[in-house]
Amino acid sequence: MTSPQGKTVIITGAAGGLGKAIAEAFLATGANIVVCDVHPQRLASVNEEWTKVYPDKFLTQQVDVTDEAAVNALIEAAVAKFGRIDILINNAGVMDDFSPAGACSKALWDRVLNINLNGPFLATKAAIAQFEKQDPTGGIIINIGSNASYHGFSAGAAYTVSKAGVMALTKNTAGFYGDKKIYCIALLLGGMNTNITDAFAQGINMEMLKKVQAAASPFSPEKQVPIESVAKYCVFLTDKDIAPSANGSCIVFNKNWPEA
Predict the structure, then answer these.
(1) Which of 65, 89, 167, 208 would be 11's cystine partner, CB 3.0–4.6 Å?
(2) CATH code of 54's domain
């Protein structure tokens, strides 16, 4: 397998949780890493930690992925520091509160769709513009999807629609840009121990949650997908032989929960 050593990887929402694990997996291969996050305290902590181990191999930037100008500035900063970009991983995301359509507030709907779907779209758009003009052209986009991308009863309406949209964005991007050596792949992940559950602070729609839980086998800690395993898979998918073959694939990676 070819190593991504020397490649430049942008990862959104990567100052903690899954995104940070992915970043560290790529750093261990010798890749250059650009991470963004909306949380300045998390970014400061990452800066302090990585400066001791990976000096000059990373860049951090505070970015709201729903802000097109900020996303474009992130791409520009990455190119200014490392000369080009090779890989984009659209990881930034939030959970909803399990509200079905009839109980979902417009504010929650807008927030979840903005971060989970508009964010990957804006980052994809900006990355493709850079992929097409650099020499050699080409690049790889990995979108972080979910069981909810294909299973309609895993979360609330907003999260479910957002992750189904991520799968559609992946396939459409792969179809159009594959012949330009720009490849797009999605990982459809199961339950993980991550920091995506901010929406729960406002409460949970218990009626919906109970119905979702009743429709599937019980979830337990041993069914969690280790974030380190997801990170290793992301590195694997960027291999020069694997990425073209996986183009357009939406790969279920969920420790068989819910059971196939």
Answers:
(1) 89
(2) 3.40.50.720
Mean pLDDT of the chain: 94
Number of folded domains that form the chain: 1
**Cα–Cα distance measured from residue 20 to residue 14, given in angstroms and rounded to the nearest whole number:** 5
pLDDT in tens, 148-177: 999 999 999 999 999 999 999 999 999 999
For residue 179, give its domain range: 8-253
Cα separation, 141 vs 89, whole angstroms: 6
Residues belonging to the active site: 159, 163
Question: How far apart are the C-alpha atoms of 100 and 156, rounded to whole Å?
Answer: 5
Contact 182, 224 (CB under 8 A): no
> Model's pTM, two decimal places?
0.94
CA dist 201 and 75 (Å) reads 32
259 belongs to a structural domain: no
